[in-house]
Amino acid sequence: MRGLPVWFASALLTITAASAQIAATGTLKASKACPALQSIRSGTNPGDVQLELGHSYPLLAKNKQNATHYLVAVEGASPRERWVEVGCGDVGGAPTPTPAPSSAGGDGVEATHVLAVSWEPAFCEEKGEKAECQRETEQSFEATHFSLHGLWPQPLGNYYCGVDRGLKDADKRNHWGDLPEPDLNAATRDRLAIAMPGMLSGLERHEWIKHGTCFGADANTYFNREAELAEQLNASAARELFAGKIGQSVSLADIRGAFDTAFGAGAGARVVVHCQGSGAEREISELIIYLAGGVNGSAPLADLIRAAAPPTNEPNCPSGVVAATAR
Q1: Which of 208, 203, 209, 230 minimizes the C-alpha distance to 221?
Q2: What is the pLDDT of residues 36-60, one digit of tens each?
Q3: pTM for this one?
Q4: Which of 1, 22, 81, 238 has the fewest Cβ atoms within 10 angstroms?
Q5: How many CB atoms lie within 10 A of CB 173?
Q6: d(CA 298, CA 143)
Q7: What is the band of 108 on the pLDDT scale with cuts at 50, 70, 90?
Q8: What is the set of domains in the chain, with CATH numbers?
Q9: Which residues of 48-79 are buried (b: 16+ CB within 10 A; e: fewer)?
Q10: Which residues lie closer than 8 Å to 247 by C-beta, 6 or more apart?
Q11: 301 pLDDT exceeds 90?
């Protein structure tokens, strides 16, 4: 992924070489206030995070079949994925999903996917050497529209499905040019070139290897679906808000209000806003939109957003400037 905020960059972290990750599901209910480690081998614990006694944490993986450590999701921690000793809590089954909401403001079910879109002028301020940033001008589509970053199956850790070790290693080293091109027809490639300017840097290769392989469909289906969702977003009041406020500050409340207008009451609560910089220099860089329901089918974006439960304890940028292209 390119230029991700800190909390979502945890999706890039490799499990330590000393620990073979084995997928696991369910929850771990903390019986001790144990340290939650980023790395078993080095014992690092950014933020000195500890489990909260009696709190239940989503279980993502274990380090080996006869586990000594579990990988859990600790909301609000950075990175979010943390290793804890098996004696730190009791493992139970996966929680029963809440039924889909009957109204737009309902709680929904745990997100099955997130749609990540960038505000490309902000991205290019930090990554100006990228080919897509060298090409960008005030007349570029991405100067006034959201750019597709990716459609990511959830939970975090659900990636690299059936991908061999060599390709995973190349991807984790950001050697995207060493990855194979997804098998896309001309129409899909042309459509994606508009939605995802990062194709000029091989972003689609990375997105397919890491996330698309877990989508449950071929590359044409996967990329057409995420392009379709990005197009619906760019045809909405949310995009109009950003395009009308270039060079000005926009608040989290403004963004959530625009999503409510575009996709129904409560939709804005399913959006996480990320910024770069601080103070008056803070700029909105990315939106993470939580989805559930028929993501793999043809359900419209509005239905997918409202079907997902709002994220809890995810950092939101309270306000930020909508950057203008520098070229």
Answers
A1: 208
A2: 998 888 888 888 888 888 788 888 7
A3: 0.69
A4: 22
A5: 9
A6: 28
A7: confident
A8: 6-92 (2.30.30), 113-321 (3.90.730.10)
A9: ebbbeeeebbbbbbbbeeebebbbbbbeebbb
A10: 321, 322, 323, 324
A11: yes
